[in-house]
Amino acid sequence: MNRKFLYLFFTLCFSIAFSQSDKPNIIWLVCEDQSVDFFPMYGDQTVDLPNLESLADDSIIYDNMHATTPVCAPARSAIITGMYPTTLGTHNMRTYNEGRDTNQPSLGIPSYSPKFPNYILPFTKYLRDQGYYCTNNNKQDYNFKISNQAWDQTCRYCSGKQKENIHWRNRGKDQPFFAVFNFQITHEAQIWSQAKSKIYVDENKIKVPPYFPDNPIIRRDMAINYSNLIRMDKEVGKLIQELKNKGLYENSYIFFYSDHGGPFPRHKRAIYESGTKVPFMIKLPNSKQAGTRDDRLLSFVDLAPTILDIAGLDIPEYIQGKSILDKKIEERKYLISASDRFDEHVDRIRSIQTKKYKLIVNFDTSKPHALPVSYREKMPMMRKMNEMYFSGELDSIQQLWFQTPKKELEFYDLQEDPYEINNLIDAPVHNYKSLVNRFRKALEKWIYQTNDLGRISEKEI
């Protein structure tokens, strides 16, 4: 009897150990506040990013990944749950102000964690239940109070030895790991924080998009951002080299992406492609499918189910995204993004798009897209654009972002007009009425099916 018991015991232990060691390791490299427009793998040759470019050579590059919201905390709530922020109630920036009792006193809004069903969990909880060691270095900002069960190691904002110690090296022997590394050097705030640091690019060779005026202040801020990307690339290189030194690079899944679009005005907090479309690539084990590109419409709600799929776990039915790597799943026809409150300013906007066309619905036309967010006013570019707008120095394209009242509907051909400056609603030649109506009905259906809470006052939520 004892022999039989021991046999079963050791067989079970061996099975558990084998199943854990057989699970793949997954690493996320996450930069902040960056659009596709700044990266060599998307056609911009302003700077060399040798470590990211090398990773890109080993990866599948995705051309249509979008943040659910063009700002960090709501977008991160989608990443960690696989749910739309507008369904969770995490769509406002921000709701849960970690470490603070106050939030937006001018609006009478305290720091609060939105209430949603307790069966909705951070996807890392499912990984940990199956033996994964999960680390998050070093930003949370999920817009709700996250469970202590989400991570083996994490911190809100930390530095030095505490930050360095949040690492896969602390896992058990042969234990699979999921490790997130956030690079804050590319954050919006670093535009003014790095103003006196070394510039690594020739400011005169930078391509300024048409919605920005071309002057030394705009070029300087753009040069700082490119320089920050070079700084980030060096950090990426150290992590990649560590993986290689430990023999972990080849067999691991490695993701690289940004948490939403660029750090500038009309990028961050803007529902245009410059605010929602992000760089995204996945290195598969043994660099399978390396060098290929994928143009499917993807959303941040797809990240959680993708990781669960990689780990061989069942994807909960409540998750609204789909695994990116499951090619049996039908490609989405429409992709939706949303924006609501940004700090002290409320402006509900929804967008729906295909690969070719995009409809933007502005629910409050009395406000410009250029909301006077006080935090953004710290950026020299923003102050200069405000000055030029009020003195009448911006051209007709650059004025569009400041236009008051703004149009209720905006409709763009993304292939012919990637900067989204020619609103086809006003087109005299082509009649897009039937197409716009089709997009609008599809958006209304999505709002109903996903229970979009943007229609409700935040105080009621």
Write a short abstract of this structure:
By secondary structure, the chain is of the alpha/beta class. It has helices at 2-21, 50-57, 72-81, 85-88, 123-129, 160-164, 190-193, 216-245, 273-276, 303-310, 380-390, 396-399, 433-449, and strands at 26-31, 60-66, 133-137, 153-154, 177-183, 253-258, 277-283, 293-294, 298-299, 335-342, 345-353, 357-362, 409-413. A hairpin with a 2-residue loop joins strand 10 (335-342) and strand 11.
Looking at this protein, list some descriptive labels.
four-stranded antiparallel beta sheet, alpha/beta, 2 domains, nine-stranded mixed beta sheet, Arylsulfatase, C-terminal domain, 29% helix, Alkaline Phosphatase, subunit A, 13 helices, 461 residues
CATH fold-level label of the largest domain = Alkaline Phosphatase, subunit A
Report how far apart the termini are.
Answer: 60 Å
Mind telling me the CATH superfamily name of the largest domain? Alkaline Phosphatase, subunit A
Low-confidence stretches: 5-19
Strand content: 15-25%
Portion of residues in helices? Answer: 25-40%
Q: What sequence of helices (H) and strands (E) makes up the elements?
A: HEHEHHHEEHEHHEHEEEHEEEHHEH
Please identify, by name, the CATH architecture of the largest domain.
3-Layer(aba) Sandwich
Largest sheet: 9 strands, mixed
Model description:
The chain folds into two domains: 15-331, Alkaline Phosphatase, subunit A; 337-455, Arylsulfatase, C-terminal domain (2-Layer Sandwich). It has 13 helices and 13 strands. The chain is globular, with a radius of gyration of 23 Å. The protein is α/β, with parallel strands linked by helices and 461 residues long. A hairpin with a 3-residue loop joins strand 11 (345-353) and strand 12. Residues 5-19 have low confidence and may be disordered. The strands form two sheets. Strands 1, 2, 3, 4, 5, 6, 7, 8 and 9 form a nine-stranded mixed sheet that branches. Strands 10-11-12-13 form a four-stranded antiparallel sheet, covered by helices on one side.
